[in-house]
Design a protein that fits this description.
Elements (H helix, E strand, L loop, with lengths): L12 H5 L4 H13 L10 H20 L4 H8 L5 E7 L4 H15 L5 E7 L4 H4 L12 E6 L5 E5 L4 H12 L4 H15 L2 H14 L1
Parallel strand pairs: 1-2
Antiparallel strand pairs: 1-3, 3-4
Helix pairs in contact: 2-3, 3-5, 4-9, 7-8
Length: 207
Amino acid sequence: MTTSAPQPAVLSQERLNGAYSYAAYRRLIDELLAQGKTTGPNQSDMLTNYTRLNVQRMERLDKKAELLPELREALGKLQQQYVWVIITEGWCGDAAQIVPVLEKIAQASHGRITTHYLLRDENPDLMDRYLTNGGRSIPKLIMLYADTLTEATQWGPRPATAQDLFLEMKAAGATHEEFAERLHGWYAQDKTRHTQQELLHLLSSMA
């Protein structure tokens, strides 16, 4: 009889300890904006303006987003402890629409899920293990078992319906402004429903 080799940890505990909490991530963005900057090595007025808009989006979701009752129920059925590693950047519009929802889910898990935020461009080795169609698309959620830091599953960078819209627009040669308008319009109309439903499906399969 053969046995498979144990799955390696996705990252070390030391590296995990160096990740941002949600509060620290939000604080970092605010501090950089006060200097006219954003996260990452690429700096421009355009990226700074995106980041400023993203702060408004995150603040709105922090205050108004409500979790689905069935998602709360699934969280109560989790039998293990999980670590959620979330790869993000302050200038990323999709991250602004999704990261606050991920944090709300973790906060409602009664300690079963802890979140840790890493910046994409500071962690290229990790990001490059979780590419989407060959690209460094974010946000990316990597769900780990807390006791081993091995991968349970992954999700991202956006709900499937939004990803289909993105790919459709990309094939049509849409401009960045057209991407932003259509996608953020979709997020506003969706009110986090598809994000929550996809996370509900993943959590239900892990309970």
